[in-house]
UniProtKB/TrEMBL annotation:
InterPro entries: Glycosyl_F510_1955-like, WD40/YVTN_repeat-like_dom_sf. Residues 1-18 form the signal peptide. This is Exo-alpha-sialidase. Transmembrane segments: none annotated. It comes from Mycolicibacterium wolinskyi. Keywords: Signal.
Amino acid sequence: MRSNIVALVGAAALVISACSTTTTPQPGPQAPDGMAHIHGLGINPADGALYAGTHYGVYRIAADRKPARVSDVVQDFMGFTVVGPDHFLGSGHPAEHAADQPPNLGLIESTDGGRSWTPVSLSGNADFHALEYRDGLVIGLDSTTRTVMVSTDQHTWQPRATLPAIDIAVSPDNPNEVLATTAQGVMRSTDQAATFTPAGTGPALAFVAWPDDGPLIGVDPAGAVYVSPDAARTWQQRRELHQQPQALLAAGDGVVYLATDTAIHRSTDNGTTFETYYALEQP
């Protein structure tokens, strides 16, 4: 565990400020040549490849580790999650040339592997910076209101707790159990995000990921990776990458993907060791 918790909390507050601004967003810029600003990661069961929702569209990173944008949709995916084979949910802001779209896309859906997207709900109203899907339940963290929102049909939503969270994760065993990362530490809800209380006395984390099997994975704002075998009650530090995290995926069977400001890293032993899976192009 890192010794200077004050520095961690300060760094977490900076991440919250960067990720949860309530100012009116502007349409996203045109896409550069390379992948950058990763906001979400997921494994597509249709092909087993890693997909990344980024500031410039959705990218597929296949076994050759050469990312390719899946379509000419270059909007800013602030929220991105894989629901099933070629089935994705997202949120964010439209591309620069899409003047006919609202600045906040609400919940959008793709059923063709990210090649096309359809508005589903909350268009113009919500900007989900974190999206989770479990057994038909969608839970999103709306950055415009800092409210956790829940939907069972992707069309009607129930606002739940409001808190300055960075990320959320849902238990694979109990959809009523939701974790949220804040500058005060990881918070836990046992009533489907209606209320939150401290989950334990562990580190202040930026992102958490809860796989279908294996321990809970977390990363702090400085890039130190932690695991919890008891649902965030206690934490054990693993690898320290010293890079600012951008997205985290715990894919199960010990496989963890961590996107930072410089690379996508992969672990096959629940964060004990990492390899550089893909180095991002630097400006």
